[in-house]
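Researcher: Quick test of sequence recovery. Tokens follow.
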């Protein structure tokens, strides 16, 4: 019997998840691989000069904390470079690299003879938060992903189509998973002052293309009095977050409406929020499969989504859509769906069934397991 593969997961902020989709992905994938007998190491970030307790293990997953600088543009590439350079001390069978922004240094992995899979994420260079230097770096990351990966993974067919059309490269399409976990502790809804089944939920990083401002504007235009709960944050978006709070405050002062910002939430508070919302709004416009959308489906949330191809691919007919970035139309959709409990149930049940059949985490891990073994076998035959 052959020994289990040792998989390194690189390019995220680390686990346990406390930031975004890639971190949740790294946690779900690594824990399940360990249960299947794999050895897994996840590379995590720590900042130079910051003294914190960095555990060496999490539920059977080995953790390595590579240093980096706290900087909007340099944090990701510096961490990638230092992590890659440390590989000479290790013996991995395959590296899974998350985020194409890390790819310009990925040649180091290939020079060391380690099979490399790169999950490229969405087309990040289109995000408004990046200046010219950031957009050029992401464009370089796309090309380097194509050059250096044994296999590219796209989390949606539209991203796979983009890489085929632009670079002539075929990629494996493996989405993210979703699962329902009941909260072990409750009370977060009381803490933020909302009632079960009586709030609208939005979850995303607070960046312009994720359209939290548009959702707040739509809420302000609507005749709804249910609170709007905004879950998420962003480390380098202070100006945008200030705009969000200013607009929310104006709405709250002039009406009986209430916008509640919770910051990032994970674990029981997040599960509680997911379990009891009236409806969920997915307003993002850039990226592939959004983990928050898949999670909303798994929890049976009634979903209204921005009408972009990525959301149509994931949600199908199991949700409502508003024309892309038309927040007046979103306001009307929210009003209609909040009034129609029967329609919300139909949509929620349909979304849950779709998530269970297509986006189960066990099924996603099956696909990665097959890919890792295929890549390692092919590399060993060379």
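Model:
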């Amino acid at each position: 019997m052959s020994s289990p593969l040792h998989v390194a997961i690189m390019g995220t902020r680390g686990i346990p998840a406390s930031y975004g989709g890639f971190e949740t992905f790294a946690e779900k994938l690594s824990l399940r691989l360990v249960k299947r007998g794999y050895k897994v190491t996840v590379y995590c970030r720590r900042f130079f000069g910051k003294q914190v307790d960095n555990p060496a293990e999490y539920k059977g997953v080995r953790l390595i904390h590579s240093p980096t600088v706290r900087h909007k543009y340099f944090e990701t590439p510096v961490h990638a470079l230092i992590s890659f350079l440390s590989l000479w001390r290790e013996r991995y069978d395959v590296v899974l690299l998350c985020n194409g922004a890390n790819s310009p240094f990925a040649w180091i992995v290939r020079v060391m003879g380690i099979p490399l899979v790169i999950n490229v994420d969405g087309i990040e260079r289109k995000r408004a938060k990046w200046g010219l230097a950031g957009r050029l770096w992401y464009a370089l990351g796309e090309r380097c992903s194509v050059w250096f990966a044994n296999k590219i993974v796209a989390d949606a067919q539209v991203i796979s189509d983009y890489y085929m059309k632009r670079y002539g490269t075929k990629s494996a399409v493996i989405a993210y998973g979703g699962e329902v976990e009941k909260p072990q502790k409750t009370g977060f809804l009381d803490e933020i002052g909302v009632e079960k089944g009586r709030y609208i939920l939005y979850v995303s990083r607070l960046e312009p293309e994720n359209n939290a401002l548009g959702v707040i504007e739509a809420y302000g235009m609507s005749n709804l009095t249910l609170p709007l709960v905004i879950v998420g944050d962003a480390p380098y978006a202070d100006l945008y977050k200030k705009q969000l709070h200013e607009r929310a405050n104006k709405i709250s002062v002039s009406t009986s409406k209430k916008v509640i910002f919770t910051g990032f939430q994970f674990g029981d508070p997040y599960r509680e929020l997911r379990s009891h919302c009236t409806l969920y709004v997915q307003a993002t416009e850039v990226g592939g499969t959004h983990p928050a959308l898949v999670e909303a489906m798994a929890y049976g949330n009634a979903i209204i989504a921005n009408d972009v191809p990525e959301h149509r691919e994931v949600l199908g007919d199991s949700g409502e859509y508003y024309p892309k970035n038309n927040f007046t139309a979103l306001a009307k959709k929210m009003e209609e769906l909040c009034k129609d409990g029967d329609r919300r149930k139909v949509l929620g049940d349909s979304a849950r069934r779709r998530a269970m059949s297509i986006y189960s985490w066990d099924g996603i891990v099956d696909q990665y397991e097959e890919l890792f073994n295929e890549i390692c076998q092919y590399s060993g035959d060379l």
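The mean pLDDT is 92.
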